[in-house]
TrEMBL record:
Transmembrane parts of this sequence: 6-26
Highest taxon of the lineage: Bacteria
Protein name: Cbb3-type cytochrome oxidase assembly protein CcoS
Organism whose genome encodes this protein: Neorhizobium lilium
InterPro entries: Cyt_oxidase_maturation_cbb3
Assigned keywords, A-Z: Membrane, Transmembrane, Transmembrane helix
Gene field: ccoS
Length: 52
């Protein structure tokens, strides 16, 4: 039972850290362009081919 005295605050702290990281990613614009990566995969890109 004494171990719960340590585990509960550690779990709350880790949860707050995860929530803080998520809120930081929202504010920094990580989720602004959800479709961009999907369309970039399908786009033709000729820069990878060697030039003669």
């Amino acid at each position: 039972m004494n171990m719960l005295i340590y585990l509960i605050p550690i779990a709350l702290f880790m949860g707050a850290m995860g929530l803080g990281a998520f809120l930081w990613s929202l504010r920094s614009g990580q989720y602004d362009d959800l479709q961009g990566a999907a369309w970039r995969i399908l786009a033709e890109d000729d820069t990878d081919q060697p030039k003669p």
